[in-house]
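Deliverable D5.2: sample structural annotation.
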Amino acid sequence: MRLVPTIICGGAGSRLWPVSKAGEPKPFMPMGSGGSLLQQTFARAAALPGVYEVLTVTGFELHARTQMEYGKADAKELGTPFILEPAGRNTAAAVAVAALQCVRAYGEHAVMLVLPADHLIDNQQAFAEAVG
């Protein structure tokens, strides 16, 4: 079984306005002590045993920023393939296209772990145990 953490990173920046805004949605906001929510999500995924790459679904307009955030994350060298949406279509569509890519790239026995990029999870050990 291959575990494929899949980060869903998007947003219009409207939920936490005026702190988040267009071009600067929640995933890019620093929260807690570990950098942005996106950096923390990436580091959490990278720390899971047996993970060789982290798949990300994001929009064209957030791609460069997402790559920059990954470069700041304290994580082992991993593959970071991206699926770039031409326009936001909400979570269900992002998960569906990621699932199709996982089957195509890793086979039908791969397990996709969907991780929203804007969640704050402080306990890495409890997270890893829940995933395991």
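Annotation notes: The radius of gyration is 14 Å. The helical segments are 37-46, 60-72, 90-106, 124-131.
The annotation will be released with the project's public dataset once the embargo ends.
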